[in-house]
Design the sequence.
């Protein structure tokens, strides 16, 4: 169409076929009646008929339920490959079981929308999440999700070895294939609205060292953890820490300690050696125990003649056990 006054001409054109989504370039220049040509112009436009895709990443879906703690973080990821996301068009709300809006801090970080409540949520309650957002072409995405609150952490029990106890079990080795030392704990999550133990989150530390997940002697599942060490420091106060989460993210921790002494006491410097000229000798033996110490009440000492016990008195003299007969001993016996 030609404007005879201004000399401007306006053109319109359209594709013959429907354009698929994508980026297009329109090239144009004008030629007057005597052949003069304008500089070419290129116009870019995008065809976008597909709405953004919204996916809730947190709370995660466990079987058919999304579980959350009383202070969850809701994360929703947007994917928009066309005209771009119009973040200003976002409409978002979290509703409680009475359809009342729950206030929280919210906003975009890159292509992820994050929301966290301003106050603790109510346990055993289902919350509804609603979100709308458009792309720059005006296509609108709308999604609704629900999550349930689990306000109780799992329990950890059945601690082995028992807290503050001594154990002398051998370490697992090629020579020791049974009866070896095992450090373990049992998990349970059955209180209230239970989301269940997430066994793959279980971790264990022994004597300050975290047990690696690829250690063939370490196992974990929803029922508990077990570790059979092949190396361990001897002595007192070997600390153990176990941590596990439920599917909602509640964390349970158990800490205890035990003492380890696999060494038997050593006996030496027995006296008399072979002969004595004393009918009432002091019979003694030195006892060495450098780890756990001696259980004095459990120590026994006997002198026998022809299989019959000989009466006498016993006592500890430092680290030496001494015995004295009540009567003279028979000669050549």
Sequence:
């Amino acid at each position: 169409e030609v404007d005879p006054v201004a000399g401007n001409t306006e053109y319109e054109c359209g594709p013959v076929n429907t354009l698929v989504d994508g980026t297009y370039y329109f090239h144009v220049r004008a030629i007057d009646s005597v052949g003069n040509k304008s500089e070419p112009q290129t116009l870019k436009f995008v065809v976008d008929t597909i709405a953004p895709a919204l996916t809730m990443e947190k709370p995660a879906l466990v079987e058919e339920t999304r579980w959350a703690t009383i202070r969850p973080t809701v994360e929703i990821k947007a994917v928009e490959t066309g005209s771009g996301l119009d973040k200003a068009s976002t409409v978002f709300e979290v509703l409680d079981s009475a359809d009342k809006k729950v206030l929280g801090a919210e906003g975009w970080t890159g292509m992820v929308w994050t929301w966290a409540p301003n106050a603790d949520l109510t346990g055993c309650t289902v919350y509804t999440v609603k979100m709308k957002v458009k792309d720059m072409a005006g296509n609108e995405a709308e999604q609704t999700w629900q999550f349930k609150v689990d306000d109780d952490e799992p329990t950890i029990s059945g601690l082995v070895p028992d807290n503050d106890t001594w154990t002398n079990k051998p370490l697992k080795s090629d020579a020791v294939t049974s009866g070896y030392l095992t450090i373990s704990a049992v998990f349970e999550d059955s209180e209230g609205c239970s989301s269940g133990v997430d066994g793959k989150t279980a971790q264990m530390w022994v004597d300050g060292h975290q047990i690696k997940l690829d250690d063939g002697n370490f196992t974990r599942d929803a029922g508990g953890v077990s570790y059979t060490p092949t190396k361990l420091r001897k002595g007192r106060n070997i600390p153990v820490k176990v941590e596990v989460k439920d599917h909602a993210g509640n964390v349970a921790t158990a800490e205890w300690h035990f003492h380890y002494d696999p060494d038997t006491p050593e006996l030496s410097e027995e006296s008399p050696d072979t002969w004595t000229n004393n009918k009432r000798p002091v019979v003694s033996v030195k006892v060495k125990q450098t780890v756990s110490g001696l259980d004095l009440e459990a120590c026994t000492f006997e002198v026998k003649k022809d299989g019959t016990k000989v009466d006498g008195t016993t006592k500890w003299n430092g680290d030496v056990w001494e015995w004295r007969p009540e009567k003279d001993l028979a000669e050549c016996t």
